[in-house]
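Working notes for the structural subgroup meeting. M.R. asked for a predicted model of this chain before we commit to crystallization trials. I am recording the input and output together here so anyone reviewing the notebook later can reproduce the run.

Input as submitted:
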Amino acid sequence: MKKKVAIIGSGFASLAAACYLAKDGYEIEIFEKNANIGGRARQLKKDGFCFDIGPTWYWMPDVFERFFADFGKKPSDYYELEKLSPAYKVFFGKEDSITIEDSLDKICDAFETEEPGSSKKLKQFIEEAKNNYDIAIKDLVYRPGVSPLELVTPTTAGKIGQFFSTISKEVRKEFTNKKLIQILEFPVLFLGAKASNTPAFYSFMNYADFGLGTWHPKGGMYKVIEGMESLAKSLGIKINTNAPVSEIFVEHDTATGMQVNGKKIEADYILSGADYHHTETLLPEYKRQYKESYWRKKTFAPSALLFFAGFDKKLENVTHHTLFFDTDFEKHAKAIYDDAEWPENPLFYASFPSITDDAAAPNGKEAGIFLIPLAPDVEDTPEIREKYFQKIITRFESLTNQNVTDHLLFKESFCVKDFKEEYNSYKGNAYGLANTLLQTAFLRPKLKSKKVHRLFFTGQLSVPGPGVPPSLISGKLAAGLIQKEN
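Returned structure, recorded in token form:
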């Protein structure tokens, strides 16, 4: 008789784990609290516009290929990928921008224009980053974070110093131009921490950026979720929506089932891809591994204020992904990580998927996603949201030299309160637990509960860390630990 695994949540990590376990012969049932699957990767559709509410960057395509290959499939079996050219554009001021093209040679040319002699240094930096990427993605990140010995291999022995230096230090050793430094520090924002707190080994994210490039699934990132859903259903996985879990049952120190909409669901194993802190609140307090004081001391990735805007015309001077670094980078980072307050003059990011993808907006119109990184748990009111929209849209118009306010058809917002309500997100964080030195690998919350047998966790607050590719890997790792139980 098949053993049953009940899975909480339907994000990337949960769906990945479900597929691996179903392939291995388990009976799998997923329970999603919201009306649609995908966890933080969902869509907003309005008046012919379509927005990704969650992730918008498709990096590290090899991780997606590896996931689908484990089931004899390819990403192209489920969605069409396009490499973005250019990858993105960065504004540092009016008529002061750098465009990151789709090849390292072109990027080197852009660097050389800003800082003579920097192209040679960049090639060496990216070569080292590629070496780190090969070590990390082909080996280290596919380890479950059970022991510190997982980090000790013949290939990492020579890299030990990079775990005690930082991205910020290494970049500044080679580059002096402030704009180039900011571009090289940008990718680690996906890991949820400041470059000055992120181990230098994580320069592999720079290879993900400049080496592997930036891609777009036609129809948006949600197409990846739909592809994984199709794979899951082909493996016989049952998926329930509008199915919030209110309690995890424990008997004799063993998880035996869950309460879902007033009904007891029995299972041989429980795997949660929901927020780790929230999941533990579903247990009796004495069965929780981590106290409230533990979570309060942790460095969380930022939250975000997002706007989803429809415009009645095509916009100018922007690319699919556009970054606005025209204000003080360090002051914004300080507001997030040190002061836990709203930044006075925030950096922001904008995505215009309709530049690449006709499905994102009606003909002749533009879909815009605007994101301001924030400290978790900051005050969140409609008035504050509107104040910050006006701040960034005024700068946007000035920097890109165009009027967009008069062409705004609508805007919807999503912020701290929504992250809490929609995803039970701890303090309303958007990306999970940051990858700092003391929150790396075996130092992150465990995939397997130490206090409750047959209870497991997966996702951005656990191993290996934040981001979509790490979430796919996390699902595989958690499934592997369950499989070892038998």
